[in-house]
Design brief:
Blueprint lengths: L1 H18 L5 H44 L4 E5 L5 E4 L1 H7 L3 H4 L13 H14 L3 E8 L5 E13 L2 E10 L1 H23 L7 H15 L5 E5 L5 E4 L1 H7 L3 H5 L12 H12 L10 E2 L5 E2 L1 E10 L2 E10 L1 H16 L4 E5 L5 E4 L1 H7 L3 H4 L4 H4 L5 H14 L1 E10 L5 E13 L2 E10 L1 H29 L5 H16 L3 E6 L10 E4 L10 H13 L7 E3 L10 H9 L4 E9 L2 E10 L8 H33 L1
Antiparallel strand pairs: 1-2, 1-5, 3-4, 4-5, 6-7, 6-11, 8-9, 10-11, 12-13, 12-16, 14-15, 15-16, 17-18, 17-21, 19-20, 20-21
């Protein structure tokens, strides 16, 4: 302050010499007043600055206490993991002087086996910018490890990114946790050994007290009886579920828990269990009011008050049985096929009535077999994809698959599946919605549209065909239509009067033996048969073998040619039959649909128009030759 005063005085002198001007008395007074005001302002500012310095010093001391004397360790590191600031608590934790660890990497204080934990902690902090917390082990200067909870966050200070780390010593907590875990292990081990070793009287009393406490906290019925079966003790669950008072129970025998007609069998089962020949008894117990309670009973021999006694654990199965019965009713009576499979090998453990009815199997043919064993799924690859999805997601919905019934019939199904658990085991529950009729209708619509499109294209081709190309077009059209409808043979034979106009045409499917050279006999016989019928009649024989004896001659001809189904259309020109178009099947019977017959009749009519045009052109050529 004195130095600043001296510099100011020197400057005033210099300025006065350089800028000295005469001033009036009035101006001099104003100047003096102004200087006094400035002096007062400076004094006030000086007081304010002094108070600010005192406040800052107080805050600095508080910060020192809060930061350095905090119960947890604080340190600040830069992006290179170097410590740039640390409080006394952290330094004491690490057993070092504060100054000695500045600009040292914090990783040198982390135990080697936990370096990966810190690496992932640091990586998440850098990537996310969010606070991170982890537990790891650090090591003091002398090599002693200790557990810490480390919490880190990042901040920007004057454009530089630094990281604040809070370190809490949790060694004692870890030690207590370890002790608790060890105590738990010892307690569990002790409980398991309680029935295997003998104790002295004091240990037995303590054991009995523990047992009594245990008995009253579980929901199963516990009964202790003498070797003769007289009841010594029951927990309160027995009173609540059986309806007897404690006094009544103490005067009862174990067999009194069963209905009179079950007691002889119960006696045999108890004897078998005591001999180790049987694990449990599934006979129901009867309550005081006569209600039969489904239970699972297990017994063993142990000591009670120093005496060997029968211990019985009776588990009430009412809720489980009711749930099982409800599930079975829903499962078995569901109108859609349902199946329950093991997750390990996809073997069936249960199927409902709709499953057996739809696929045509008996229960004995399904239970215990896998899906692959009975080969019911058509697309094995798609089945495996659904199995993987079920394992991965736990469910799948509305998957379309074809399955094969016992008689080979293909069934379209809409499948959904889910993993369910029962008594710690997992199973696949699948349900199928039979959509065969829907898919058949869909396929029929697609077939009908494609067939109509084929007939339309053939019709257009016949309208514009040249006479010379007619035979080739007929061969091509018989081929295309025969393949589309799945016929084994397709043929076109002109009547006698038209043999000069058009030649016979014949097509057979691949693998069907050609009998073209013997077909003349068949065509003559078929033509003769057609003449006996109405001229506009379509011959539709779905099954040749069931033709009546009145049609013996035509049946014999058809069977000789191995024809199982036949469809023949007369081709007319006006009222005159000029040819016939035939389709037959050699491998199987087929019932031709009305829609297919209508489209084939359109095809036959178009052939008739084309043949009529050929006839007219032939007659014109003959007249020209006469002229």
């Amino acid at each position: 302050m004195i130095l600043l005063r001296k510099q100011a005085e020197e400057k005033v002198v210099v300025d006065d010499i350089l800028n000295m001007e005469p001033i009036s008395s009035e101006d001099y007074k104003k100047l003096i007043h102004e200087l006094r005001l400035q002096k007062i302002e400076l004094e006030l500012q000086n007081d304010e600055l002094r108070r600010s310095e005192e406040s800052l010093e107080s805050l600095r001391m508080k910060y020192f206490d809060l930061y350095n004397m905090a119960p947890v360790g604080y340190c600040t590191v830069n992006e290179k993991k170097l410590i740039i600031e640390v409080n006394l608590t952290a330094a004491n934790m690490l057993g070092v002087n504060r100054k000695s660890i500045l600009n040292k990497s914090i990783t040198r204080f982390i135990i080697k086996d936990d370096q990966d934990i810190y690496y992932m902690h640091w990586k998440e902090l850098l990537n996310t910018g969010q606070s991170q917390m982890t537990e790891l082990r650090m090591v003091k200067k002398g090599g002693e490890p200790f557990f810490v909870m480390m919490s880190s966050n990042s901040i920007d200070i004057f454009g530089s990114r630094v990281f604040n780390i809070v370190i809490s010593d949790i060694t004692e907590k870890k030690r207590l946790e370890f002790i608790l875990k060890e105590n738990e292990k010892r307690e569990i081990t002790e409980l398991k050994r309680m029935d295997e070793r003998k104790r002295d009287e004091n240990a037995l009393r303590e054991s009995e007290l523990n047992f009594r406490t245990f008995f009253e906290t579980i929901d199963d019925m516990i009964v202790i009886a003498t070797h003769d079966g007289n009841i010594l003790f029951t927990n309160t669950v027995v009173e609540r579920k059986m309806g007897y008072s404690r006094t009544e129970l103490e005067s009862m025998h174990l067999l009194d828990f069963h209905a009179a007609n079950d007691r002889e069998e119960a006696k045999k089962i108890v004897a078998a269990m005591l001999q180790g020949k049987q694990k449990n008894c599934n006979l129901s117990v009867i309550t005081k009011n006569g209600y039969l309670l489904p239970v699972d009973t297990r017994i063993w021999i142990s000591q009670w008050n120093g005496v060997d006694c029968i211990f019985g654990l009776i588990k009430d199965l009412s809720v489980e049985l009711e749930a099982k019965q409800l599930f079975e009713r829903i499962f078995l009576c569901n109108p859609n096929p349902l199946a329950l499979n093991r997750i390990e090998d996809w073997s069936f453990i249960d199927v409902n009535h709709a499953f057996l009815r739809t696929l045509g199997y008996s229960r004995e043919e399904i239970i215990g077999k896998s899906i692959a064993d009975i080969d019911i799924i058509q697309d094995q690859e798609e089945q495996m994809k659904l199995a993987e999805k079920l394992v991965q997601d736990g469910h799948f919905h509305d998957a379309e698959l074809q399955c094969r019934s016992k008689d080979g019939r293909m069934i379209d199904g809409l499948f959904s599946g889910e993993i369910i658990s029962n008594q710690g085991k997992k199973y696949f529950l699948t349900v199928m919605l039979d959509i065969t009729e829907l898919k058949n209708a869909e396929r029929q619509l697609i077939h009908r549209a494609a067939f109509a499109n084929l007939i339309a294209n053939m019709s257009l081709a016949f309208l514009g065909v040249e006479d010379a190309a007619m035979n080739d077009l007929l061969d091509e059209s018989l081929h295309l239509i025969g393949e589309f409808i799945g016929a084994d043979r397709v043929y076109l034979f002109p009547c006698n009067s038209m043999e000069m106009i058009i030649q016979p045409h014949y097509w057979c499917a691949e693998g069907v033996p050609s009998q073209k050279e013997h077909f003349l006999e068949f065509s003559i016989a078929l033509a003769s048969y057609i003449k006996t019928l109405n001229i506009n009649t379509t011959i539709n024989i779905p099954d040749v073998s069931i033709l009546p004896d009145s049609m013996y001659s035509i049946r014999t001809i058809l069977e000789r040619k191995n024809i199982k189904s036949l469809l023949v259309f007369p081709i007319l020109a006006g009222n005159k039959q000029i040819a016939f178009l035939g389709f037959d099947l050699l491998k199987k019977q087929s019932k031709w649909t009305d829609e297919d017959q209508s489209l084939l009749q359109v095809f036959a009519n178009n052939i008739g128009l084309s043949i009529k045009r050929l006839e007219q052109n032939h007659e014109l050529r003959l007249k020209k030759e006469e002229w």
